[in-house]
Every structure is written in structure tokens, then in C-alpha cells.
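Re-running the complex after MR caught last week's input typo. The corrected sequence lines follow. Everything else is unchanged.
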Amino acid sequence: MKVLLLYTTHEKQTLKIMERIKNRLGHKCDCDVIELLPDTKIDLTPYQAVLLGSSIRYGFYSKIMKKFIDAHYQQLNQIKSGFFGVNMVARKPNKNTPETNLYTRKFLAKILWKPTIKAVFAGALYYPQYNWFDRNMIRFIMWLGKGDTDVSKPMIEYTDWSKVEEFADQFYAEVC
Ligand SMILES: Cc1cc2nc3c(=O)[nH]c(=O)nc-3n(C[C@H](O)[C@H](O)[C@H](O)COP(=O)(O)O)c2cc1C
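Corrected-run output:
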């Protein structure tokens, strides 16, 4: 079975999650992992299943992903599919489902594609990699939410990898 794993990312945490899902699916599926960039052209015809992943920046999922979904929702609705979102708020146990995570709930309500399965995962912070403005903004957001504000750490990862693997298993069971 040919499966498309399509993602958008800033610091590659969404790619890391997609790769983990691909590895979990193993040889059971023939997966293409593709980054969706503004000029990426995707032909969905060869795929029997599609998984889209995107991350939040300043309250919104990627515009490129939204545009792709708006352009392809009819085709996406005809095949089995999944969506996962990545953000920092999802590190909180009461905000880590597509229903309780406001960004994800709003995003899914706004689009005409109805993915077969959905999930939201906590992401990671790479403070030293951000520019001054982004570092201070996200640090302030984390401080408000009582998160980790130590900008000297190269990476602060909140992703629950067992949850990612469970989702990969669910994707295989229900979608593939
Ligand atoms: C500048 C910036 C803004 C962010 N804004 C939000 C936000 O509004 N809400 C949130 O929950 N997470 C926010 N995040 C956290 C990201 O969603 C998280 O770092 C995620 O792992 C990014 O995934 P990516 O590397 O695939 O883009 C922000 C991160 C950065 C660096």
C-alpha cells in the first residue's frame, strides 16, 4: 500500500514525529515522506492513504498546509486519511486531544477535509536556534504557562513518543 506522509515544519519536530510514524509502520506500507513547501506539487492519485502533520506558530497551523487542504479536500475525503498537529499547549494533559486542544479544534472546524483519525502531540523547543524576537516571545509564552524557560538548553522536548507510536498503530489499523 502506497502512503503519503506530508508535513510542514519550522525546526523539524514535525518531521521527527513523521519519521517515527514511518519507522513504526515499517515495511507494512510503502511511505513517501514529503515536506510541503510553497511550491510543492503533489499528485494524490497514487496514494491509498494520506497522513498530514503540521505545527503551530503564534497560534496558527501552517498557511501552506491550510491551502493544500482547501485545494485537495474532495480527493482527501475519498481516501483514508489522518491528521496530527504539534504544539506546546498539548504538553498539558487537559489540552492534548484534537477536541481539547483549541488550535486543533478550530483548525479542523475550519476545513472541509474530514480526516479518518486525528491526534495532537506536544512539540519541542530549540531556544538557541531562534532569533532574538522568537526566543523571547516563546520564552514569555512558556513562562505564562509555567513551562521550561531555560534558553541555554539546546532542546526541550515534550513529545510523548509512546503516544506517537500508538497513533501510528491506530493509523495502520484504521487507515492502511
Ligand atoms: C516562535 C514560536 C512560536 C510558537 N507559538 C506557539 C503557540 O502559539 N502555541 C503553542 O502551543 N506552541 C507554539 N510554539 C511551539 C511549537 O509549536 C513547537 O516548538 C513545535 O515543536 C514546532 O514544531 P516544528 O519544529 O515542526 O515547527 C511556538 C514555537 C516558536 C518557536
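None of the earlier attempt is carried over here. Strands lie at 2-7, 30-35, 49-57, 60-61, 80-87, 117-122, 124-125, 156-157. The pocket of flavin mononucleotide is lined by residues 9-14, 55-59, 86-89, 123-125, 130, 134, 137-138 (CB under 6 Å).
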